[in-house]
Amino acid sequence: xxxxxxxxxxxxxxxxxxxxxxxxxxxxxxxxxxxxxxxxxxxxxxxxxxxxxxxxxxxxxxxxxxxxxxxxxxxxxxxxxxxxxxxxxxxxxxxxxxxxxxxxxxxxxxxxx
Length: 113
Description:
Layout: H1 7-13, H2 31-38, H3 50-65, E1 71-72, H4 75-82, H5 86-99, E2 102-103, E3 110-112
Helix pairs in contact: 2-4, 3-5, 4-5
């Protein structure tokens, strides 16, 4: 009679390979830190272009300074810190997601790709 081991018991005995290990998570970015990196110069003065200006400023900061896997702050916190409308921040993040710069989840955080 052969004994069968459960998958869980087998997995406990096998060491994890480097490829199977999760990479160390990058600490989340606070809204204040991201606002400091973006700076006040992102506003062009045209109220109709706030989302586009913010998207271009965030694109530059993300590509130059943030490592892949960084968790961005919630949209509401970022909007309050940058002193702009939450809808403008959401539109800018949606634009970045379409360009493949960030990945967003419904009711979740936004991460840098």
